[in-house]
Amino acid sequence: MCDCSIFPFKPDPPCFKICAAKMLNDVSPEELQVVLGLPHKIAEKMTYYAMGRELESLEEYKEVLSPKDMRLLEKKIRSLNDVQVKYLMNPLDFRMEVIRNLKETVIDFTACEDLGLKETGDESLEPCKDIKKSEPI
Question: CB count, 10 Å around CB of 4?
């Protein structure tokens, strides 16, 4: 039996593939891109394939991912840190609440950065002054 609450998932095999599938079962394409760092195309394929299913093994993604994409997926999962794994293992409602709470800060930072707004002395841009680039989730 696999204890998916402990990362790295052991014994490997079979626990890595079982627990990784469990972790990714209800992950959004955005989370696959932001947290795992997967390309958009791979994230979309995975999400579409898993929609309405409870995948039991990472191997099931072989139906839609090339061997090269599967290697990338496994590499990205193995390189996750404890915080990222704990985040992904939480239920969808919890993860969405975390995102809602972070959304305003991320949007403010992105807007300031995209517009090139930094410390300019203009008081209307004061919120941009103290915004620091945040660490990935």
Answer: 17
Contacts 24+ apart (CB under 8 A), 30-38: 31/88, 31/95, 34/136, 34/137, 35/80, 35/84, 35/87, 35/88, 35/136, 35/137, 36/73, 36/76, 36/77, 36/80, 36/84, 37/76, 38/72, 38/73, 38/76
Structure tokens at 76: 């990205």
Catalogue the long-range contacts made by 131-136 (C-beta closer than 8 Å, 24 or more residues apart). Answer: 131/105, 133/109, 134/102, 134/105, 134/106, 134/109, 136/34, 136/35, 136/84
Share of residues in the chain with pLDDT > 70 (%): 73
Measured distance CA(135)–CA(116) in Å, rounded: 20
How far apart, in whole angstroms, are the C-alpha atoms of residue 107 and residue 109?
5
Check pLDDT > 60 for residue 121.
no
Q: Are the CB atoms for 4 and 22 separated by under 8 Å?
A: yes
